[in-house]
């Protein structure tokens, strides 16, 4: 678009219309907001010969194929412009619904055959306007992604409201996640403390049992030694008497 805007700024009033028409037919351009607000376009639209050119650019900014057909004041489009507007119409439809029926696309674009629908959608996919999958059995187009189009000034407030609601929803989700994290952290800390106390109690119990075992062993050893000593004395005494 930069190239066309530079040409437009330096062109005479009589040469501006062809530049604008070339821009509208350029297969690599799909956003025309900067062209629409150009003072050079506004000056051209004030002439009787090109009174409808600003409206024509508006259609390419955020209009559809049906809107163009319904306005008899608009100039006839070239074939590249017509194809461009059909592609942009598909973008608008895909922005409104993630599941497009073949019949709805036919109605919006004046098509009669399923093959025409599929060819158009495939063209939009190749131009990276949408990411979609054709379901020929169900006769629908499943939309995964779609580019944005230019926005009307009157739609900005609605977009801002939607963004605010989205931000509020994100805050709620983040709050829930934070609560879950705090809960899990407390649970993990409590479990760690419980495990520590349990291990400590186990160690104390083992120590107590070990101490008791040693004491019992020492007592038995002392008794056995005393008993053995008396026996030896008696045996020695018998041996001596004999």
Q: Report, as a whole number of angstroms, the end-to-end distance.
A: 133 Å
For the residues shown, what is the average pLDDT? 85
* Rg: 44 Å
Shape: elongated
- State the major sheet: 3 strands, antiparallel
Helix content: over 70%
Uncertain residue ranges: none
Strand order, main sheet: write it out: 1-3-2
The SSE string, one letter per element, is HHHHHHHEHHEEH
Summed up, the helix count is: 10
Q: What is the number of E strands?
A: 3
Structural class determined from secondary elements: mainly alpha
Strand content: 5-15%
Tell me about this structure.
α2 (13-25) crosses α4 and α7 packs across α9. A hairpin with a 4-residue loop joins β2 (130-135) and β3 (140-146). By secondary structure, the protein is mainly alpha-helical. It is built from ten helices and three strands. The termini are far apart.
Tags for this model:
single chain; 10 helices; 3 strands; mainly alpha
Compile the SSE list and pairings.
Elements (H helix, E strand, L loop, with lengths): L1 H9 L2 H13 L7 H4 L2 H7 L7 H10 L2 H6 L8 H18 L2 E3 H8 L4 H13 L3 E6 L4 E7 L9 H86 L1
Antiparallel strand pairs: 1-3, 2-3
Helix pairs in contact: 2-4, 7-9
Structure described in brief:
The chain is mostly helical and 242 residues long. The chain is built from ten helices and three strands.
């Amino acid at each position: 678009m930069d190239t066309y805007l530079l040409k437009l700024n330096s062109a005479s009033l009589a040469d501006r219309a062809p530049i604008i028409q070339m821009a509208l037919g350029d297969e690599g351009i799909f956003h025309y907001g900067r062209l629409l607000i150009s003072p050079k376009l506004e000056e051209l639209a004030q002439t009787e010969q090109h009174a409808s050119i600003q409206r024509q650019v508006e259609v390419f900014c955020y209009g559809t194929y049906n809107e163009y057909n319904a306005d008899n004041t608009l100039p006839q489009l070239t074939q590249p412009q017509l194809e461009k507007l059909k592609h942009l119409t598909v973008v608008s439809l895909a922005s409104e619904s993630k599941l497009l029926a073949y019949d709805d696309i036919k109605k919006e674009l004046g098509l009669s055959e399923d093959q025409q629908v599929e060819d158009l959608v495939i063209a939009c996919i190749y131009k990276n306007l949408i990411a979609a999958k054709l379901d020929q059995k169900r006769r629908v187009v499943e939309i995964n992604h779609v580019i944005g189009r230019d926005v009307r000034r009157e739609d900005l407030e609605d977009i801002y409201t939607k963004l605010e609601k989205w931000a509020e929803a994100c805050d709620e989700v983040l709050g829930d996640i934070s609560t879950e994290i705090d809960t899990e952290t407390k649970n993990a800390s409590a479990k760690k403390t419980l495990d520590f106390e349990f291990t400590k109690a186990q160690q104390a119990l083992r120590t107590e049992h070990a101490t008791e075992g040693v004491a019992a062993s020492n007592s038995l050893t002392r008794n056995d030694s005393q008993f053995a000593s008396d026996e030896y004395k008696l045996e020695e005494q018998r041996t001596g008497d004999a």
